[in-house]
Write a structure and sequence with these properties.
mainly alpha, Growth Hormone, Chain: A, 21 helices, globular
Length: 423
Amino acid sequence: MNGRSSQYWNQIAIIGALFFIFGFVTWLNGTLIPFLKMACELTDFQAYFVTFAFYMAYFFLALPASAILERIGFKNGMGLGLLIMAIGSLIFIPAANDRNFTIFLVGLFVQGTGLALLQTASNPYISIIGPIESAAQRISIMGICNKIAGALSPLILSSIILKNADALEKEIAAITDAAQKSARLDQVAEQVIIPYIVMAIILALLAFLIRKSSLPDVEMEHELEGDSSVATDRKSILQFPYALLGALCIFLYVGAEVMAGDIISTYGKNLGISLDKAKYFTTFTLLSMLLGYVLAIVAIPKYISQEASLKYSAVLGILFTVCAYFTEGPTSVMFVALLGVANAPMWPAIFPLGIQGLGKFTKTGSALLIMGIAGGAIVPLIYGKLSETMDFRLAFLSVMLPCYLYILYYGMAGYRVGLRVGK
């Protein structure tokens, strides 16, 4: 019995390490945006293609990932995802050597591709490896691993590649000779090489350890398709309006989450806060999300339902967004960071509401919702374009308010649209 218990917790620790990797790699973008803006001499709008390249990978891989995992299994799928992420990290070497933003974007897209496959495998896997009645406990542990990593990653990377950022910005601005300036920027860009080589080595080592680990090599479970009797008279996922509305909700939620986490450094810098301070702001958002996640674990479903938590979270998002607009300096940044509290409970509420009652269409519906992660690619770009023609705080309000208003609608009524049709 003790041996089985030890093996079970070893498996939990391995998957926990993977969720740590998710959080660490995902939230590096908040540091990369100001870094690449400086090194590659980009506008704000151009710099936001960092999130575009990373999150669009989910859009393209959502449907193929399920087929890949059915063919090679969960365990091999996780190892493959880690190796693809390692390759993406290595692409940063030629990108930095040439100071080529396009190659950086290719590396980010490849990283996102590996991460999408890894997440598609490991998220259901954590539910399968133990008793179903304790699945919520395991998922909670994974979420905490993810958010802690997300809070640490900007601190670590920014301390390496954005060290003395204010002095560096002034130094570069003072250089008038084009060749000398280009040479100095080349040196700046090369600072990213060693961290990403280290990351590639760690990812490759993890892929090897996953392959040799004690994780059971389970196959796709048929029960993940749900009760096929629920949807016997429906011929297409398009006949489930609440699922389609849920995909749009995921799109806007992820967009809002990325805005609060990855754009906050640039937001703070535009308020006149030094880059040496602003480079750590993503960590504040992630700590805020960790708090929101813990509160959700305590409150749902003991005190409030998933639907109610989604409504309250959307209202908080609206409130904090408006407060960020009407305040200045660090106070405004604080309200942007507090959006993490509002965002944290949203995914756990939207996803189950979007796939409820889909029966044999559950896999397709899940893939559709995963494709909604592309909101993290599109929403920041819309903000970047708007901020070129209006005050950046007004642009932030103009983008975030519609996101939270729609999420509020989905939590109040959207998740029920067409739910009982065909039952």
